[in-house]
Amino acid sequence: MFQALIVDSHNLIPKLMPQGIKSVDLLQGDGGAGTIKQINFGEDIQSKYMKHRIDILDKENYVCNYTLIKGAMLGDKLESIVCEVKFEPSLDGQCITKSTSQYHTSGDFEINEEEIKSGKQRATGRGCRRIPIAEPCDLRVKIISF
After folding, report:
1. How far apart are CA 73 and CA 65, in angstroms?
2. Rounded distance, CA 21 to CA 75, Å?
3. Are 3 and 113 in contact (CB under 8 A)?
4. What pLDDT score was predicted for residue 119?
5. Are the CB atoms for 56 and 32 separated by under 8 Å?
6. Are 81 and 102 within 8 A, CB to CB?
7. What are the φ and ψ backbone dihedral angles of 14, each rounded to 5 degrees?
8. E strands of the chain, at which residues?
9. Running DSSP on this structure, what letter comes out for residue 116?
10. DSSP character for 66?
């Protein structure tokens, strides 16, 4: 899952979510730390694109840290959003994805918990579904059309 959803996301995500994400372009780098990606959204999405920088890509421990550096979702109140995504196997054979975010605000602006929850729900609520797999955190993926 890590390989597919993080390392190869620029190839896989537009195939999984074609209405929401038109393409993912590598603007700088080779996919590792320092890479800058631009996610181009479909016509149904209010924002046209967002850019993020890969800060840490740990393929052995299935951890990726990235920083959202440009896009309408930052608006004029946020300078950046720093995210960590970690994949861990669970005891029941599934894959647990843990995600944390740090919001860096502009000036004296303070973001409240309701705004954070609302943004996360909008970001994760589209195109997600549970797919059982034999080896959940293995570096293989089966692309399923829907």
Report:
1. 18
2. 20
3. no
4. 65
5. no
6. yes
7. -60, -25
8. 21-28, 36-41, 49-58, 63-71, 78-89, 95-105
9. H
10. E
Reported pTM:
0.76
CA dihedral 63, 36, 38, 82 (to 10 degrees): 50
CA distance 4 to 120: 21
Q: Tens digit of pLDDT for each residue in 105-115? A: 888 888 777 77
CA distance 32 to 74: 24
**Number of CB atoms found within 10 A of residue 50's CB:** 20
Tokens representing residue 123 in the block: 């970001």
Q: Is the dihedral of CA 4, 32, 20, 12 positive or negative?
A: negative
Half-sphere exposure (CA, 13 Å, Cβ side) for 95? 23
pLDDT surpassing 50 at residue 38 = yes
Work out the widest C-alpha separation in the chain, in whole angstroms.
48
Residue linked to tokens 């800060």: 55
Structure tokens at 100: 């944390």
Joined together, the tokens standing for residue 121 give 């729900």
Burial of residue 10 (number of CB atoms within 10 Å: 0-12, 13-18, 19+): middle
- What does the chain come to in residues? 146
Tell me, what's the pLDDT at 113?
77
